[in-house]
Amino acid sequence: MARSTTRSPSNVLGTGQSRVYYNLRTNKMERVTLPWKKTETITPTKMCQHLVK
Asked: What is the pLDDT of residues 1-53, one digit of tens each?
């Protein structure tokens, strides 16, 4: 079975400083300047591919 990859963007709008927590390919809390954007490329595991059939 071929693995597919998904680009997963996360956006937080606004101005100033904020803390964001994201759960993409990695899990992390960061202090960021808004607006903020994070994009990760995610490759599903074999189990995830089985669940979405």
From this structure: 445 555 666 788 899 999 988 877 778 898 999 998 888 887 777 766 555 55
State the residue range of the domain holding 24. Answer: 6-51
Model pTM score: 0.53
Is residue 1 situated within a structural domain? no
Under the phi-then-psi rule, with left for phi > 0, alpha for psi from -120 to 50, and beta for the rest, what region is 17? beta
- 18 within some domain: yes
